[in-house]
Design goal:
Distance between the termini: 32 Å
Order of helices and strands: EEEH
Oligomer: single chain
Helix content: 10-25%
Number of strands: 3
Length: 64
């Protein structure tokens, strides 16, 4: 049985209001699939040692 390759979109930066920045990932219909605050994302990066290299815009898929 062939493995299905999942194509994911890049994360985009969204600024819903002043002082609030979020990374969002959208599905094929353009709806939000995943949403993360920028501060939480950056602090999670500092807590972990990098094991995996990923492409630009795919920061939540592995460590950079």
């Amino acid at each position: 049985m062939p493995r299905r390759k999942s194509k994911t979109n890049k994360r985009s930066l969204l600024k819903p209001r002043k002082g609030d920045r979020r990374y969002v990932r959208r599905n094929k219909r353009g709806e939000f699939k995943k949403e993360v605050k920028v501060g939480r994302s950056l602090s999670a990066d500092r807590r972990r040692a990098a094991k995996t290299r990923v492409k630009k815009g795919q920061g939540d898929r592995g460590d950079t």
